């Protein structure tokens, strides 16, 4: 009996020892889906194991697919990866190879291969290699005003850089806005084809002269994504001016109580008044305000008494608001978190908030907002709408090179105005800045004024008169 009992126990133990240990369960996840075709580009997958003895390494096998070629379009993947002992996961990296081919984005598909060592719960994932040699396209309203009077046309310019220009390139776009295609202007096709050998093509927008009295209307063009190109500047806007427009409201110039730039106040004011516009002046406080010395004022006659304070302004009474430059304009920078070395430039929270509120009101009423020289920084630090984005985010603008006022940033670091000038204020808030002196004659900034929708920016005091003329033209 003892012998039989021992045999049964040994057989039971043998069966226990021969029973298979449950296999690990593997899951493949895409943890970075895209890899630009650059020196630092990388996409990756992560393979994670569960139900396994982590004390032992586990070899994972996988296959590759997709229209990207293993070893040609990206560094060769071996088909296996090892989860180290003590670890629950391993990463599989896709590193693109740099080439000069003009090609669409390509996919890399990694799939786990079955094995007796594990079970597969999530098998396949796809990453994408973003080609670095595709043409880069942009759209700009090179003439953004069409008028019913005389049926004056406006012009959109679609351009490309990089890529092979020996072939034509079709850029697709959508059209929206308050103007109606076919009624307010001739319909646009939705495709702009840049001819072979050319870097750009123009699309003409022709207004329809109807008998309806209407406000100024807008056409918004937006380039759509496409595998054949990348988009740099996606949107452009054109306005259509009715030929029965009522007399415009006055224009509001905003100067700083201290250190505004006199020519940047006087020149746009002169241009607007010559065009028949009434101009009123506001400042943070309604008191005599002094410009920077030697900025164009008549000796002994540079002080300006504003007509009203910002708190007294009703935006409904004006057709546009213009922020004059000079370092004193820093006092209207709503979202700026630093502290200026010159206390004059640190605006009170109430004045900064009121300046920002007025900008939001003018934007909401579809009115022009203008920044001249350091006044551009006021637009950059404004925060618009519920999203709280900068007014200049993704907008094309111009700003002056050179010095800015020194400040201590929010981290307590001193910032010298040599490197943190008006251009820095604009670019750090997402503006697409054109190079200084790049418009028209490179020897002067007198023609450096940019209109992007309802936003007008001027480089410096030499551009101030043209800024006033440009605003007058748009206000009609």
What topology emerges from the helices and strands here?
Layout: H1 2-18, E1 24-32, E2 34-36, E3 43-50, E4 58-65, E5 80-83, E6 89-94, E7 106-112, E8 118-122, E9 124-130, E10 136-143, E11 145-147, E12 154-161, E13 169-176, E14 191-194, E15 200-205, E16 217-223, E17 230-233, E18 235-241, E19 251-254, E20 258-260, H2 262-274, E21 279-283, E22 290-291, E23 308-309, E24 320-323, E25 339-340, H3 349-364, E26 368-372, H4 375-381, E27 383-384, E28 389-390, E29 396-397, E30 407-408, E31 414-415, H5 422-427, E32 432-433, E33 449-452, E34 455-458, H6 464-475
Parallel strand pairs: 1-8, 2-9, 10-17, 11-18, 19-21, 19-24, 20-22, 21-23, 24-26, 26-34, 29-32
Antiparallel strand pairs: 1-3, 3-6, 4-5, 4-7, 7-9, 10-12, 12-15, 13-14, 13-16, 16-18, 25-30, 27-28, 30-31, 33-34
Helix pairs in contact: 2-6
